[in-house]
Each structure stands twice: as structure tokens, then as C-alpha cells.
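Chain entry —
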Amino acid sequence: MAERSQIDEIKEKLNIVDVIQAYIPNLKKSGSNFFTLCPFHNEKTPSFSINPDLGIYKCFGCGEAGDVITFIEKIEGVDFPEAVEIAAEKAGIRIKKVFSKADKEKQGIRKRIIEANELSVRFFGHALLKHRAGKKAREYVKARKIETREIENFRIGYAPESFNSLMDFLLKKKFSEKELVSFGLLVSKNGRIYDKFRGRLMFPIFNTKGEVAGFSGRIIDKDALGPKYLNSPETIMFNKSSLVYGLFQSREAIRKENFVIISEGQIDVLSSHKEGVGNIVAPLGTSLTEIQLKALKRYCDSIYFSFDTDLAGEKALLRSVEVAQKTGFEVKAINLGKFTDADELIRQYPGQWPIVVQKAEPVIEHMVRRLSKRINLGEAKGKAEFAKIILPMIDSLTDRIQQSHYIKKISVIIDTDEEVLREELDRFRVKTEKKEREEEQEGAIFLKRSESLSREEYLAALVLQNADYFKELNNNLTDINEIIKNTNIVNILTLFREAKNLKILSNKLGKNEKSLFEKLILMPISIFNDEDEIKNEFAGIVKNLRMIHIREEINAIKKKINEIDAKGEDTENLVRELDALSKKLKSC
């Protein structure tokens, strides 16, 4: 492991925004921060904030936070020492290998997770292949024609229906309940602790190093309650948005063929391997992410989609094609014909799968054929629906000759003039460009005042996130301490006036103050187009706080007057003070 001074050198040399942008494009800038959708959990509204001055990030949705090395560790699914090596390579620094106490502790936790997961794989494997509790699972595996070779290669197992069988096994191996809950193997709910996975066929999820990062469990009893697939929760080892099922076992085949088949389910992956087609993976029950696709991009340049043939599969295909093309992949689609998924085709027609794969077709051709069967093209409504789906796909093509080819083809299929289709395509482009401009203007999430911040915190966040502007208005900050009750905020703003930059300020703060400071510096607040807007926003929140402060003083004096008046004592001075405060309030 690198020496501590070297780690600091690596962090200083790397621009955290540049590093993160290499994994997640389209960062939006606001003030001194950048915002984007979080890569570590699914979200529609960006809540992932990055501050380049401090070299830190935080997601206000899932809570993930850290620095450039932490980000690499999480996004790459590697341990801390390996993340440091990756960061050092990006920074062009050769590192010395020395472990610190903190690094050893983190390594120890990671090692315990790997050990617990590995023991769980053996436990589930034994239950499936040898234990009486796995009889139903063995019958299921046989019915699905999953062979021993695939069971052993992918280390598939079975979680018995018992609430405590895995727990009892791992407790005997000297793990604590607290550890196992944090590893995602047990659940703590309503005062009870019990096995997370029960009555499920278990699929271990491996990282690229072959370590068991987590699990995906499939229900085998159709009448059982719960989701069809259940994944491990997020841990330092497991992030379902960056992992795909089967990559560890399939990566060499993917590299050799220079294309990867993406299916929807784990059993599709097993069946494909059984047929000798090993370049196949499956996402873990979520929409494909750019992180997953970037991981696949290391091995190949093309994707063949093999999604289910129902309407949900069609929608998933359209979403996935868009993100795959953005990531730079050539995309095709596999025609499954009358079959629901790849596994069904393979079970009914052994030996045909490699031929079907080789006949993969351009995605637009695939969708044209598919929609022509599903939509009534004899009706105006059907023609409009057809065009609405296909035209965005045509627009995504960069080759004008291909675009012209498909416009002509579609005009014949739906019996509509080419010029009408071109006009519709232009309208779609205008609408898309307008939406992109609006998103650009709106930035990331920006609320006028974040629901998660108090007025005082919002004021401090406004100042810190527009530090360059407020450094020039130092005097404007000297009179606001009296209206702020939070002593940590008072101290932060006092030091802000004295410190040359935010990094120096951060180093001067105590633990509690630093935690608040980082929250304030990263919290999404408002987007401003110019300094006048910042000035007006600042004046408005200061006025609001000052009025609150005066009202509190007025109420306190009124209470005091009532108490003194009840004793028959003189209240003249207090009345004058009250009058002065009332005038002050009116002048605000």
C-alpha cells in the first residue's frame, strides 16, 4: 500500500471531476459543484454532488461519500490497495507498498465479507447437491435442464426455507450476527435476526477477480411470496449497478468473440454456456447502467441483446440500446422467434442457439419486424405508434445514408410519404434539443431551498458554494453571526472569512464542524445565472433570518414585561426596547 504522504500526493494530482467524468459523462455544473445521477443506486433526479476544490463527493440519495480513491474503489469493485494503484497509474505516480493501520482495518472487513460469502457458497452448494432440504431445488434444476457442469462452474446453490440454517452455520464459524447483517446475509427486522435468503436457488455474483461479491436468489416455488429475484444489499463488495452476472466466467469468450450477449436472466446465461456460447452476461434485475457497459467495453465492441419477447422486454431493449450506443457499442438484437427467452429456445431446440446468435440483426431491423407483428398498421393510430418508436432509433444513427435507407423502408411499411416522416423526425429532434437545453439550464436537482437544510444551513451553503463571489464581499458576512444560532455554522463562516481557500478552511475544522461543512459544500441548493441572482438570494435569506431573530427578541421582551408587570414593577425601559425592535422589524 502506498505511504500516507503518497496517497495525499495522488489525491492532489488527480482532478476528481475528470476521474468521475471518465466513468459518468454529462456532469452538470452549479456554483463550485458538479452534479449527476448516482452510479451506486437507481434514481431519476440527480443527487450525486462533487466538489473539485476539496476533492470529495456525496450522494444525497443513498449516502455514498468519499474522495477520488474511494470512488475508484467503489466503482471498480476493488479493494483499497488496488484502488490506490489504479489512482496512482492515472496520476502517473509510482507507489511504495506500505500498509497503514486504517488500510489494514478496511482490508480486514473486506476479507471477512469474502470469507463469509465463500462459506455461504459452500453451504448453499451442499444444500442443493446433497442435503435433503434441497430435494425440491434439485427437481427444479432438473426440470430447467441445468447440468452439473454449469452448477459447478457458476457455483449455484440453494438456500433452505429455514429462517436460521445459514445463520447457525456461520455463527459456528466465528462470525457475529452484527457482522452477518452488515454483510447482507442476515436481516434484522422487528427485533428478530434471520436468514435473508430462504427457499431460493442461489446465484453467487463474482467480481472480475473471482471473489464472491454478493448473491442473487431466485424463487423456485411459483406460489411463494416475495420478488422473483432477490439481490444482496449494497456493501463495500457488492454494487448491483456496476456488476453483471456471469462476467467472470464469460470474459475470455467475450474477448475472443469481440461481442457480448446480454440477456435478462441468470438461467439464460447458464443455458447458453451449456450450448457452447460462453460470451453472455445478465444485469442484476435492473436497467443497464453506463457503469456496467463501461466494464464490458474493456472486453468487446459489440452487444447482441437477447431480451424477453414480451412488452416489458421490448421496453428494456429500447432503453438499453440508447445507453449502449452512448457508450460506443455497435448493437444488434437476437431474434428469439416464438420463444419467451433464450433458455426456452435452448431447452426446446438444443443445438440451434449458436445459429440463432449468428443471425443477430441490426436493432432497427429487429424492431421493425417486431412492431409490424404487434401493431395494426392498417390504422392511423397504429402507424403513429410505429413511427413514434422507430424514428428516435433512426435519429440515433450517425450515418446519413443509413438514416435515409430506413426512412424509405418505413414509408413503405406504414404507407406514409417520406417527407411526412422526415418532418416528424425533425420535430422529434427539435423537441429533444429543447429538452436538453432545459436540462442544461436547470442543472442537476436544484430546489429553491433544499428541504434537507435549515435556513441557517442554506445561508452557509449559499456562501460556501459561491466562495469566489463572497470572498469579494467579506464585509457583508461580518454582521450575520448575530442572527445564526448554530455555533458550528458561526465558526465555519468566521474561519471562511479568514482562510484563503476552502481546503485550508477544511483543515482548520473540528470533526463535527468538518462533517457539517462537507454536507453544506456538497448539498444541492440553487442554480444562479449571475452575481445579481446570488446577491438577491443572499439578501433575501439574511432578511428572513433577521426578521425571525427580531421576532424572537420581541416575544422574549413581551414575556418579560408581563412577568414584571404582574409584580407591579416599572416596565418603561422594556417598553422602549420593544418599540425600537418593532420599528426595526418594520424596516427589514
User: Anything to note?
Assistant: The chain is about 55% helix and 10% strand. The chain has a mean pLDDT of 86. Residues 375-440 form one domain.
